[in-house]
């Protein structure tokens, strides 16, 4: 009888030890998998969820995640459906981002680069507000290069060029957001 209790105790300890070891391995695998996720993966996982992006020192953008590229995210304003494009490098922090993620391999769309999405906006000839680390510019995107964007400024916000408008070049590294006007 006494040996049975000893064996039961040893079996219980062994089972507990195995469970603890499996839990530790599982946690290690979870941490290793999480370490490989990018911000773009997490934004893809947000789907159409509303978020608030804090961009630069004072810009706050809210909207639902509409599309995500390797280096940018597009938010759709729920009120009017207009889209803002934000380079991921400009994001300081995000409110409301869920922990789930969706890697790029799981999406059906090809990940367009930031230059491609800006060229789409340029083709539309939309008047936009380009927010940079040096301030904002209202105008139309005239040309998109590998590391810079030319913007034809419209200082009065009019749809056509007025006196005082000029072509400005914005370094991609200084770009914080391209907002609908």
Provide the succession of SSEs.
Answer: HHEEEEEHEEEEE
Structural class: alpha+beta
The total strand number stands at: 10
The largest sheet, given as strand count, sense and whether it forms a barrel, is: 5 strands, antiparallel
How far apart the termini lie comes to: 84 Å
Assembly status: single chain
User: Percent of residues in beta strands?
Assistant: 35-45%
Strand order of the largest sheet: 4-3-2-1-5
Shape: rod-shaped
**Percentage of helical residues?**
25-40%
How many DSSP helices? 3
Average of the residue pLDDT scores: 85
Radius of gyration: 25 Å
- Which spans have pLDDT < 50 for at least 5 consecutive residues? none
Protein architecture, described:
There is one protein chain. The chain is of the alpha+beta class and 181 residues long. 29% of the residues lie in helices and 35% in strands. The protein is built from three helices and ten strands, in the order ααβββββαβββββ. It has helices at 2-35, 39-45, 114-124; strands at 50-55, 59-68, 72-76, 83-87, 91-95, 127-132, 135-144, 148-153, 167-171, 175-180. The strands form two sheets. It has a five-stranded antiparallel β-sheet with strand order 4-3-2-1-5. A five-stranded antiparallel β-sheet has the order 9-8-7-6-10. The longest helix has 34 residues, at 2-35. The radius of gyration is 25 Å and the shape is rod-shaped. 21% of the residues are buried.
């Amino acid at each position: 009888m006494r040996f049975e209790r000893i064996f039961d105790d040893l079996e219980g300890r062994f089972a507990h030890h195995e469970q603890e070891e499996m839990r530790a391995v599982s946690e290690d695998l979870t941490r290793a998998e999480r370490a490989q996720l990018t911000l773009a993966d997490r934004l893809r996982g947000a789907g159409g969820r509303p978020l608030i992006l804090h961009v630069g020192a004072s810009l706050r953008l809210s909207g639902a995640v509409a599309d995500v590229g390797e280096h940018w995210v597009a938010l759709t304003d729920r009120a009017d459906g207009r889209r803002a494009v934000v380079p991921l490098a400009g994001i300081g922090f995000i409110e409301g981002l869920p922990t789930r993620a969706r890697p790029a391999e799981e999406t059906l769309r090809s990940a367009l680069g930031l230059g491609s999405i800006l060229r789409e906006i340029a083709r539309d000839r939309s008047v936009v507000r380009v927010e940079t680390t040096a301030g904002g510019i209202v105008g139309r995107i005239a040309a998109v290069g590998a590391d810079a964007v030319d913007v034809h400024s419209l200082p009065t916000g009019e749809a056509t060029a007025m006196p005082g408008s000029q072509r400005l070049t914005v370094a991609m590294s200084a770009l914080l957001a391209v907002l609908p006007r």
